[in-house]
């Protein structure tokens, strides 16, 4: 029976559970992404996000409170030097859980938990979407209408140079036809003397 169990005990005693969550939070802060079960990821989300909120205020007191939960100096340094400035503008929701399927041995529901601001794929998409929205709101419909009006003129300007080379090619080919006619004319002149010599030969034969 549940008997007012407000959180998942993960099948461990309190000391074991706290040590495990501290180690997982340290790995998440240092590596920015870890793979675990969905139940542990949800417990880690509740454990790590208040610590990450502490990193917005880089003071001695905040560092000591974070060290009490993380129990690792390198993780505290990484938290306040790298993670804190990156999530300064975010009001919460620093982690993301992505389900990856089921584990082969016991069919446990597996996932990846990561820090939202350190995934380049999602951050690039968010920046691109933000830029696209600002451009549309500033330009409005006038810019789109101007683009549509310019397209026919651009199409005509690009199509006009394509016709000129074809006309030049036709004019260049015409002299070749004239040259062939001139070459055939001398051939006709050479044949005519042969026809005139034939009657002279016949007259000489008659005189003899």
Provide a quick synopsis of the model.
With 208 residues, the protein is mainly alpha-helical.
What does this structure look like?
The protein has six helices and three strands. The chain is mainly α and 208 residues long. It has a three-stranded antiparallel beta sheet with strand order 1-3-2. The chain is globular and about 75 Å long.
Q: Which SSEs are present, and which pair or pack?
A:
Elements: H1 14-31, E1 33-37, H2 38-54, H3 60-70, H4 73-86, E2 95-102, E3 109-115, H5 120-139, H6 142-207
Antiparallel strand pairs: 1-3, 2-3
Helix pairs in contact: 1-2, 1-4, 3-4
> Roughly how many Å is the radius of gyration?
44 Å
What share of residues are in beta strands? 5-15%
Q: What is the end-to-end distance?
A: 151 Å
For the largest sheet, list the strands in their spatial order. 1-3-2
The largest sheet, given as strand count, sense and whether it forms a barrel, is: 3 strands, antiparallel
Average pLDDT taken over every residue: 77
Structural class: mainly alpha
Low-confidence stretches: 177-182, 187-198, 203-208
- The number of helical elements comes to 6
- Measured as a percent range, the helix fraction is over 70%
Shape: globular
Please report the total strand number as a whole number.
3
Q: What are the secondary-structure elements, in order, as H or E? A: HEHHHEEHH
